[in-house]
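Researcher: We plan to redesign the surface later, but first we want a full-length starting point. Tokens attached.
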């Protein structure tokens, strides 16, 4: 195990401790802790969920349920780019199912799958919070507004 600061473990531990301190005594801020952690490190290892559960005085399963329901944690997110197609009520009513079908056709995968080249992971989400832009799609952390099936190919090409 590496204990010198050159391997990154000490600096990561220090940063995680700073984040915990920042959010620990603020009610309902556990999600902000995880979002900020993800912005810095890009992934969320189980050891961080365990540390946060202890720090925020929660059960690990409670933290995991919260993270899954808010689309912060996924069972699997292989692929360089994550495409999230919103199926919230507004997006659904404005044609999101056709948009999803177009993504499936262009990528040759179904929701919950990754393309064979490892570039794209496709998922359906309940809401992206961008109802005014419906139907909306998020690729990585970028919202694509008013998506229709004709726009799908160009969205995909912009990430290749």
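Model: Full-length starting sequence:
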């Amino acid at each position: 195990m590496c204990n010198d600061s050159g391997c990154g473990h000490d600096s990561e531990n220090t940063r995680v401790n700073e984040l915990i301190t920042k959010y620990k005594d603020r009610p309902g801020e556990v999600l902000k802790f995880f979002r900020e952690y993800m912005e810095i490190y890009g992934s969320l290892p189980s050891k961080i969920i365990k540390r946060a559960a202890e720090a925020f005085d929660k059960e690990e399963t409670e933290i995991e349920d919260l993270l899954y329901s808010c689309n912060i944690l996924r069972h699997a997110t292989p692929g360089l780019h994550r495409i999230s197609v919103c199926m919230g009520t507004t997006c659904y009513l404005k044609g999101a199912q056709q948009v999803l079908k177009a993504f499936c056709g262009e990528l040759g995968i179904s929701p919950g799958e990754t393309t064979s080249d490892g570039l794209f992971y496709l998922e359906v989400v309940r809401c992206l919070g961008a109802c005014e832009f419906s139907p909306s799609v998020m690729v990585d952390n970028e919202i694509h507004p008013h998506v229709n099936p004709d726009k799908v190919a160009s969205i995909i090409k912009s990430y290749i």
